[in-house]
Amino acid sequence: MQTFSNKSTDASGKKLLLFLPMRRYVAGGRCKSTARLEGKVVIITGANTGIGKETARDLARRGARVIIACRDTAKAEAAASEIRAETGNQEVIVKKLDLADTKSIREFAERFLAEEKELHILINNAGVMLCPYSKTADGFEMQLGVNHLGHFLLTFLLLERLKQCAPARIVNVSSLAHHGGWIRFHDLQGEKCYNRGLAYCHSKLANVLFTRELARRLQGTKVTANALHPGSVYSDLVRHSFVMTWLWKIFSFFLKTPCEGAQTSIYCAVAEELESVTGQYFSDCQPAYVSPRGRDDETAKKLWSVSCELLGIQWD
Fold first, then answer.
1. Most buried of 123, 130, 153, 210, CB within 10 angstroms?
2. With a threshold of 0.90, does the pTM exceed it?
3. Which residue of the set 133, 200, 267, 289 is catalytic?
4. pLDDT value for 232
């Protein structure tokens, strides 16, 4: 019996040794910056769960005043309370923001600008994925409306404060899925043809194009804009798809944890070497390949113009 036990233990040990390198590979790069953020004000959308919450936790640990901007304020308060208790940083604040409603976005920005005198880092993290066809309060297809248009408007409303507090950073959480997207100007709201997976890809491509054009327009202001792919993360982002939720559970070993997925967001927000880097796309805390559609400046400019028209704003 003792021999059998030893063999069993040896076999388990060998399996563990085989899986550890694989797990380290899945985890990806880590942000190695030790930068402190005392005196800095950060907004993170959708920071009540997943990579947003882990990003908030890290930046709070660095001493930043962190604004958790979320639709579900009860969940956000629970997350903020947890972060305050763990980090000892009491400057973790919840403010209501519904990116599916431009009225809510404007109200959030108005309150923030009245109550906070500074803003140094804006992390556009919130998103929806694979949801059935639905529309925002303003009639936009939900994934495009939340993932792109909502953050487009939020950035527009907060940009002057970022410029006043420069050097400042804008971080847009995109995805590797942008490679599968294209901007269908003839059916931007998916009313003629809707596929929930492709709609997500389109919205993530919009994030990349927005970042590219925003960075071009912000040259010389000391406000940078970069986009990123967090990796395939085990989170509730896939909650709208039963199949994806099931697959995520089965293959969870091969997915990043929310903490691992947050590393590139943190890197883009704090890394000293990125102080003057703008208009780039990162994955695993290093520059990553952007699809040809994501490098199309004419499409980026047209998307900018169409986005302004849809939102009823002038952003020159």
1. 123
2. no
3. 200
4. 72
Per DSSP, the three-state class of 227 is strand
CA distances for 269 relative to 42, 64, 176, 226, 261, angstroms? 9, 11, 19, 9, 14
SS3 letters across 17-43: HHHHHHHHHHHCCCCCCCCCCCCCEEE
| Structural domain contains residue 263 | yes
Active site residue 200: yes
Query: Please, which residues have CB within 8 angstroms of residue 310's CB and are 6 or more apart in sequence?
Result: 140, 149
Return d(Cα 138, Cα 66) in angstroms, integer.
29
Name the strand (E) or helix (H) holding 10. helix 2-27
Total domains present in the chain: 1
Q: Domain with 238 in it: what CATH number?
A: 3.40.50.720
pLDDT tens-digit map of 26-71? 557 899 999 999 999 999 999 999 999 999 999 999 999 999 999 9
